[in-house]
Amino acid sequence: MEWLAVILILPYLCLFLWIYINILKIKPFKPHGDPALFVSVIIASRNEERNLPVLLDDILVQDYSPDLFEVIVVDDNSEDKTFALASEFAGIRNLKVIRNEGSGKKQALRTGIGASSGSFIITTDADCRPGRSWLSTIASAFGHFKPDMIIGQVVLKSQSGFFNRFQELEFLALQGVTAGTAVSGNPVLCNGANLAFTKDAYNEHSENLHNELVSGDDIFLLHSIKKAGSGKIIWLEAENSIVSTQSSATTASFLAQRARWLSKAGSYSDVFTLVVAIVTFVTILVQAITLIAGIFVPKMLILFMGIFLIKSIPDFLILLNATTRYSRKSLLRWFIPSQFAYPFYVIGVVCRAVFSPGKEKFNSPYPRGI
Prior knowledge:
Layout: H1 2-23, E1 39-45, H2 52-60, E2 69-75, H3 82-88, E3 95-99, H4 105-114, E4 120-124, E5 129-130, H5 134-145, E6 149-151, E7 154-156, H6 162-183, E8 195-198, H7 199-205, H8 219-228, E9 233-235, E10 243-245, H9 251-263, H10 271-296, H11 299-325, H12 335-355
Parallel strand pairs: 1-2, 1-4, 2-3, 6-9, 7-10
Antiparallel strand pairs: 4-8, 5-10, 6-8
Helix pairs in contact: 1-6, 1-10, 1-11, 6-11, 9-12, 10-11, 10-12
């Protein structure tokens, strides 16, 4: 049993060390002048009267020429003042506020992109906060690299307490996997809170977004472009392009969000993404089983600690790199407690996804995340 457990986790060690090696290849991007590229910013919103005006204020003060971008707010059947507040917002030269031609975020994005004038689309969420050079940096990257998709950086706003620190560490780990796989040329993740793509790429692949699922407007587009083989997808490592977003306020909302992420995995067609998911889940399952077994058979605790150390090596390296790049190294003091909590968190997410299928709705706010 001991050797079997070790053998089962070796793929995790190899895979995530490979991801870490690719992360080391990341080169920060420096904007190369003004590309004079007209871009369309699409914000799908539902019941966002508190957050949307703040985001629009951030966009208002962008250092990109106001003649070179438009903002399209798509109201998805809000029950509050989202539409009215967006319509009354003054200052953004090219601002359109329209209603969703249907329901759900995927249809809202489709409605917004259909109404857009730009050949390059940038998406974000209403609760996000971009920096002043967000648009100019992304536009410069598009002009320089000529990609079909740009995967942008997203960070969680820092808050106190173990629950929030755990979320930050997990999110940074996901950003590390996103960056490492993208740099390798085999991306598996992205986040619609900071995503850019050509309108041509979207129109070509928009039928592959699995409209029957609540979330996945971002990752299914990524997988479809990747599968076609002709599209160029890049990771944008640029401090000025980072977008920050809110962490989940409660444990229930956090688990519900992660359950949504997991529930769409059954619709993934990207083989490498499935391999990463299966290897990760098997490793965590082995970890949990050996820990629980150790309660009844003390010698199993030794095996658990061995597995714990093996898994922690690539995890720590990826997080050390991520926390350094995002100036959040102080989070590493929470690494060991988070590692112990992680197997039970994953099992909780799996149980939520298995025993509560089809119950996730388009509530306020939108389902966030990868």
